[in-house]
Write a structure and sequence with these properties.
12 helices; alpha+beta; disordered N terminus; binds alpha-D-galactopyranose; ten-stranded antiparallel beta sheet; about 30% strand
């Protein structure tokens, strides 16, 4: 445990602690810091927080240019402090009044460390921060594998593992307004090929919704130096005397028993400490996006309400296309920014819709994209200067849209007010989908001074958080889904303001099996919106079974379903209610990976109950399914559920047998799936 002399005031000039050790432990992973008489901090035979200009020629955690142009920093330990779960190691430059605190919050019940860095100074003029990482980790014995989650729009979170080799490997994003499109802001290091159930594993995730960078450098010494934080690329900023810069939290989870345990701990942590209302079951929703896209009117929505009520839906989510009059939002080319109800499509307004929804026992949700604007909009006509752009450059559109400059407090006020106005005018709205359908390519602000332009990515994210926080404070009962052209906002930073996220616009269940598998490493099922759609024309049962392994929702045109299909939906929704809490609050055991064979399976366990999902997209030979995570001593009744003709019992089996020899599953046809409910047999 931390050594905490606690006798030195945090701002104590250059008083140094003559030698010490601090250890912060998370499962199979320990951050151990030592320093000697000179106060130079080390971590596992490498530097504790490598500074540029201090003899370190590899990737630094900190690069500061001091008031007089000195590009080097030389930090020494001046104090340590420990209180409850928080440990702080205070460092000071040997010659400058420049202070860096390394802060650790250990969440020992989940083997998780949250770590961040606080920087301040009292130099006569501003200091330029070129880079300031949230975490610097030195791992001895560089024989590690790195697993990343890469992809693109509608193809998120593909798992790629490789040994860490000499040189430097960087996972990053430079998207500024969101963390993710091509690479998720998470990684896993493992002391061999990644395994679910064995081996030392360190999982990392940056709680930040902008550009990030994780670097993994295998040093000549054989250590791996990992530096994690906001992407310093084109993001330097001035820190004024007396001002404090606090980096975002880096969340590190460790285990000696493989990635399964790390995910279960991360899920518990996210439910408890990150998500809003992580202890409340999520509603089953119908979203009209893939049912209608932009082509709907009031009577279509009323008809969907009827269908939704008929099959047992809790919440109706009206997606894009409900606003804009001068520039009606009938496709994605115009209207974004004009958040007035489109009177042609919805002559009686949103509040009327919410009331009719209530008459059908439906909560009501609404789509917004508060940060964006189409050039074809009244907003753009009135405030072209609010757009992020660079002088002398032609505006670059993505999905026909531009980004509003949230570093500007006036724009923050606009974004908050547009949400607030709609929510106050229609007080029954209890859910919003917050979208963000582009990233930055021309990061210039007309609000920030000319010599502060590289501060935009950080200022934007801070502005975004201030709007989200205000929304949460003023409208605490309104649930929020984070969406960003599919899974662009899947970071623990934005999730603090949300209840769930939309992992991907790819809703073909065959592809979703892989996407959900990837997400499940860091995101608990309760937060992973998973919808039944008609994408791919897959059998309804298969689509439902895949969606039921996450937070179930539907994007279906109920009006187009046959009576038999409606009946299937009705029963599947009722069935999901039976085990929703096992999926949403249970522990996840990944059993068979879709990457490894023709059949994939996962199991959730809560107390003595479990539910297992088995998927066969292309057909699979007969093989035993060896369950995980059960109680060996309990005899379970195994029931296959969500079958068109009602539940079927597979018999009673001791947990030990189900886990060792397993359940013999017959050959599966392509696009088939099974759900097994396991309850103790009394
Ligand atoms: C994004 C989202 C979709 C949908 C559309 C609406 O692509 O990911 O779910 O909301 O925007 O334009």
């Amino acid at each position: 445990m931390p050594d905490s002399p606690g006798t030195t005031a945090p701002n104590a000039g250059s008083l140094m602690i003559p030698g010490g050790t601090v250890e912060i432990i998370a499962g199979g992973f320990t951050l151990r810091y030592d320093w000697g008489e000179d106060g130079k901090i080390k971590q596992n035979s490498g530097p504790g927080y490598p500074q540029w200009g201090d003899g370190w020629v590899f990737e630094p955690a900190l690069f500061a240019v001091h008031f007089d142009g000195n590009t080097s920093t030389d930090l020494r330990v001046v104090n340590t402090h420990s209180e409850g779960q928080i440990t702080k190691i205070s460092l000071k430059d040997s010659a400058y009044t420049f202070y860096v605190d390394l802060v650790f919050q250990s969440i020992s019940e989940y083997n998780i460390i949250e770590t961040w860095v606080e920087i301040r100074h009292e130099e006569p003029k501003s200091v330029t921060i070129q880079s300031a990482a949230s975490a610097a980790i030195q791992i001895e014995n560089g024989d590690y594998y790195l697993t990343q989650f890469s992809g693109d729009w509608a193809n998120e979170a593909n798992m790629v593992s490789e040994p860490i080799r000499k040189g430097i490997k960087i996972l990053d994003s430079k998207l500024a307004v969101r963390a993710h499109q091509f690479c998720a802001p998470w990684f896993i290091l493992s002391d061999g090929p990644l395994s679910e159930d064995s081996g030392t594993v360190i999982a990392g995730s940056l709680a930040w919704s902008g550009s990030f960078r994780f670097s993994f450098e295998l040093l000549p010494s054989g250590n791996i130096s990992t530096i994690c934080g906001i992407n310093p690329f084109a993001s330097s900023f001035q820190l004024e005397p007396g001002e404090q810069f606090k980096t975002p939290k880096m969340v590190l989870a460790g285990s000696n028993s493989g990635s399964g345990e790390v995910s279960r701990n991360l899920h518990r942590y996210v439910r408890q400490s990150v998500l809003r209302d992580g202890d409340k079951p999520r509603s089953i929703l119908l979203n009209n996006w893939e049912a209608t896209f932009f082509s709907f009117d009031e009577s279509k929505l009323l008809s969907l309400f009827k269908g939704a009520q008929d099959i047992g839906i809790d919440l109706f989510l009206l997606d894009d296309g409900w606003f804009g009059n001068k520039y009606p939002r009938n496709d994605d080319t115009q209207g974004l920014g004009d958040w007035q109800t489109n009177t042609e499509k919805l002559p009686n307004g949103i509040n009327y819709l919410t009331e009719i929804a209530l008459d059908h026992s439906l909560r009501f949700g609404l789509w917004f994209e508060p940060e964006m604007v189409n050039p074809g909009s009244k907003l753009f006509e009135q405030h072209p200067d609010w757009v992020i752009q660079q002088p002398h450059r032609e505006l670059e559109l993505q999905r026909n849209q531009l980004t509003l400059d949230l570093s500007n407090p006036e724009v923050q006020e606009f974004a908050y007010t547009l949400l607030d106005d709609v929510l106050r005018a229609a007080p029954n709205i209890s859910y919003i989908k917050w979208d963000c359908n582009r990233y930055l390519t021309q990061p210039g602000s007309q609000y920030l001074p000319q010599d502060r332009q590289t501060y935009l990515p950080i200022a934007y994210t801070n502005g975004l958080y201030s709007v989200m926080e205000r929304l949460n404070i003023e409208h605490p009962a309104v649930e929020v889904m984070m969406c960003s052209g599919g899974g662009g906002r899947v970071d623990y930073g934005s999730l603090e303001f949300a209840h769930e996220l939309w992992p991907s616009d790819m809703t073909d269940p065959v592809r979703r099996i892989y996407i959900q598998w990837g997400f499940s490493h860091f995101i608990p099922a309760i937060a992973s919106a998973s919808h039944v759609t008609s994408w791919g024309g897959r059998p309804l049962k298969f689509a439902f079974d895949v969606a039921m392994s996450g937070r179930l929702g539907l994007d279906l045109d109920i009006d187009k379903l046959s009576a038999e299909e409606r009946e299937f939906c009705r029963r599947a929704i009722a069935t999901y209610r039976n085990f929703r809490e096992i999926v949403q609050f249970g522990d996840l055991y990944r059993i068979e990976s879709p990457y490894d064979g023709p059949r994939s399976s996962v199991l959730y366990r809560k107390d003595t109950q479990a539910v297992a999902f088995v998927f066969s997209p292309d057909g699979a030979p007969s093989a035993n399914l060896c369950f995980k995570g059960l109680e060996p001593e309990i005899t379970y009744q195994v029931i296959e559920t969500n079958l068109p003709d009602g539940d079927t019992s597979w018999g009673k089996f001791p947990g030990q047998q189900l886990m060792s020899s397993g359940l013999s599953l017959p050959k599966m046809q392509a696009l088939t799936s099974s759900i097994f409910l396991l309850t103790p047999n009394n």
